[in-house]
Amino acid sequence: MTAPSERGAEIGRRIGVGLMYGLWRPRVLGAWKVPATGPVIFAVNHSHNIDGPMVMGVAPRPTHFLIKKEAFVGPLDPFLTAIGQVEVDRTTTDRTAIGRALDVLSAGGVLGIFPEGTRGEGDFASLRAGLAYFAVRSGAPIVPIAVLGSAERPGRLIKALPPLRSRVDVVFGDPFEAGDGSGRRTRKALDEATERIQKQLSAHLEHARRLTGR
Question: Is it the case that residue 156 has pLDDT exceeding 80?
Fold first, then answer.
């Protein structure tokens, strides 16, 4: 099993910078809060397909996202792999993806997760346990990220994309620990961690909306 490429993720970040700033007007707030070194987990709300590339492009560190295997089709397959992204099968316990994600963190890298599991309202209303598992298992702090302004708007001719040159806000929050300090990875401990995470992410999203007026 090959660990995701850190160099590839940095190339992906540079591609993201060019694309995101070329097509839209990202406004990035709080990026200085991201720890400069060591393992970090980005927890990103997910209401649009550009959320992942947007975060990759504006984050201060290269990011390895867990991305559904359905996205790895045609030429996107070798491309996403080359830029250090992690393919995950959401229909099962994908041990290969879990191993690769933990490898990213054990190497001191940044793992990006959409904790809601699928694209939806982007309000962190329903979290899966995967985020808690990675955070408790690795001890990596979680940085909440709210992407606002990317959701589809009624009446758009091209519904797949936000209007070109429109503003998209990306708000980074304060890092926090998901575990209770005991290092326990029991089902109860993970459920408690998920509850703590949900409160933190929801509070950050509310703060981000107030901050940006979205």
Answer: no
This prediction's pTM:
0.90
Q: What are the residues whose beta carbons fall under 8 Å from the beta carbon of 199, sequence distance 6 or more?
A: none
DSSP string, 81-126: HHTT-EEE-TTS--HHHHHHHHHHHHTT-EEEE-TTSSSSSSS--S
Q: Which of 162, 178, 160 is nearest to 111 (CA)?
A: 178
Spatial distance between the Cα atoms of 181 and 54, rounded to a whole number of angstroms: 33
Contact at 8 Å (CB) between 97 and 88?
Answer: yes
Domains along the sequence of the chain with CATH = 6-152+159-212 (3.40.1130.10)
pLDDT in tens, 9-38: 999 999 999 999 999 999 999 999 999 999
Grouping H, G, I as helix, E, B as strand and the rest as coil, residue 110 is strand
Burial annotation 179-190 (CB, 10 A radius, 16+ → b, else e): beeeeeeeeebb
Q: Tell me the H-state helices in 129-186.
A: 130-138
Mean pLDDT of 142-158: 73
Does position 117 have pLDDT exceeding 80, yes or no? Answer: no
Cα 214 to Cα 205: distance, rounded to the nearest angstrom: 10
d(CA 154, CA 177): 38
The better pLDDT of the pair 46, 74 is held by: 74
Contact 89, 97 (CB under 8 A): yes
